[in-house]
Design brief:
Blueprint (H helix, E strand, L loop, with lengths): L20 H11 L2 H14 L3 E4 L2 H5 L3 H4 L15 H12 L4 H10 L12 H8 L3 H12 L11 H10 L8 H7 L1 H5 L3 H8 L3 H11 L22 E6 L2 E6 L6 E4 L1 H8 L4 H38 L16 H8 L3 H8 L3 E4 L2 E4 L16 H13 L9 H10 L6 H10 L5 H4 L4
Length: 433
């Protein structure tokens, strides 16, 4: 009898980040503002008998008198609820250069509904903008890369695909099953799907369990009522020519471990109770570490902002230098999304007001990296203020003067900036007295 043996050797290298539930919650903790963090920890304290949360007098004593005033009611400045549109708009301005493609993305934002879905077809986009098909595809892709994951989708299937694509912890077959077998998957016809991919039905069930953790409405969270008060998480003080940046105590809630209760429960000699107590202790340790990392990340990002925008704190005109999220991310060696979560909804207290950290990010003008849009507008205002009102400067003349100052922008941009400053055209600024 002839004997044949077939050998088939394959080598496959896979690099994957396993995002555990704790890692996901760590990311969530970073995204919380001070009030959100307090509410989250209070809820955790109700679920964990070993955890108590308090803001201690000792923590406050480490702050100077002016730092303590951060919690004064005068600093509880009413804040407007941030809409999904505003959140997306901020990301576009902070991450994209001023190009026609960005203009097309801004156009698309007008058609993103409250749930995060894009309610305009490619044909309608072309009819309204005249953009080429490849430009439309690029703009939609850029929109769908924004946070929250799933935004900019046309339907539920596409939203789930986008969320799965952005999640490194997604099951291996999740994306292809959602893409190729969505209807059967939703209708729970899992046996044919499992047979198709030569896996156990249990693996399809695992994919289903994962999909249930995704959201069908990625933008819905932004329609909820948010807190109407600002609690700054950073405070900066001017000492001569130096700036001192500190975390406020709102950023550093103290987590207290109930050691005596833990020791008493371990003496019950009940294995189930012992396992439960050990699990809750591990949860406490993880929360304590995550809260500490959150404060450290906010402080590190704040330090880079303050260093880069040094002139803002000393010049009464409050000039801002160009700064993008990716600049800080690269400098700190973290992902851009980490910086985005860090600055969103976080505020900095100064002696002259409270500012959201996102305020300090601004694009450069053209290819120049020394002038931001705000600083150029200020120079434009100064030129017009000093002009001879009998012979006001035309937009073209302003272009020439700005170019002489090292700022190269178009006449159209000058006109746009002038209008944003509510300054009339030269023909309407002319005076005859």
């Amino acid at each position: 009898m002839a004997y044949q043996q077939g050998l088939n050797q394959q080598q496959k290298q896979v690099q994957k980040l396993a995002m555990t539930q704790q890692l996901q919650q760590s990311i969530q903790i970073l995204q919380y503002n001070a009030d959100g963090l307090q509410q989250f920890l209070q809820q955790k304290s109700l679920e964990n008998p070993l955890l108590t949360v308090r803001h201690t007098a000792q923590g406050k004593a480490n702050l100077s008198g002016s730092q303590r005033r951060v919690d004064n009611f005068m600093n509880a400045i009413p804040d407007t609820t941030q809409s999904l549109f505003d959140y997306l708009l901020g990301q576009v301005h902070l991450t994209m250069r001023d190009t026609p493609l960005r203009d097309l993305v801004l156009f698309l934002l007008e058609y993103v509904d409250l749930n995060g879905y894009l309610r305009i077809s490619n044909a309608e986009i072309k009819a309204k903008t005249g953009a080429a098909a490849v430009q439309i595809l690029d703009a939609v892709t850029l929109l769908q890369q924004l946070d929250p994951p799933g935004v900019g989708a046309r339907n539920l299937q596409e939203s789930l695909l986008l969320q799965t694509q952005s999640d490194d912890s997604a099951p291996n077959l999740a994306y292809i099953v959602l893409e190729e077998d969505f209807v059967d998957f939703v209708e729970r016809k899992w046996a044919p799907i499992a047979s198709k991919y030569q896996v156990a039905v249990a693996e399809i069930q695992h994919i289903f369990d994962y999909v249930q953790t995704l959201t069908p409405r990625p933008g819905a969270a932004f329609s909820q009522t948010q807190n109407n008060f600002i609690r700054p998480e950073l405070v900066v003080h001017i000492h001569g020519d130096e700036l001192q940046l500190n975390l406020t105590y709102d950023t550093q809630p103290q987590l207290v471990f109930q050691q005596r209760y833990f020791d008493r429960m371990l003496k019950t000699n009940d294995q189930e109770v012992t396992d439960y107590m050990k699990e809750k202790k591990q949860e406490f340790e993880w929360l304590q570490k995550s809260v500490g990392q959150r404060g450290s990340t906010i402080l590190r990002v704040g330090q880079k902002i303050v260093q880069h925008q040094h002139d803002f704190f000393f010049d009464t005109k409050r000039p801002l230098k160009p700064l993008l999220l990716r600049d800080v991310a690269t400098n700190l060696g973290v992902h851009e999304s980490t910086v985005s979560r860090t600055v969103n909804g976080k505020y900095l207290q100064t002696d002259f007001g409270v500012f959201e950290l996102k305020h300090f990010f601004t694009n450069a003008i053209g290819h120049q990296q020394s002038d931001s849009a705000d600083s150029v507008k200020q120079k434009l205002r100064d030129l017009i203020t000093a002009e001879d009102k009998r012979k006001p400067l035309s937009d073209q003349r302003l272009v020439v003067l700005l170019e002489a100052a090292g700022i190269t922008i178009s006449r159209r941009t000058v006109a746009k900036y002038r209008e944003s400053l509510n300054i009339a055209a030269s023909s309407k600024r002319k005076r005859f007295d």
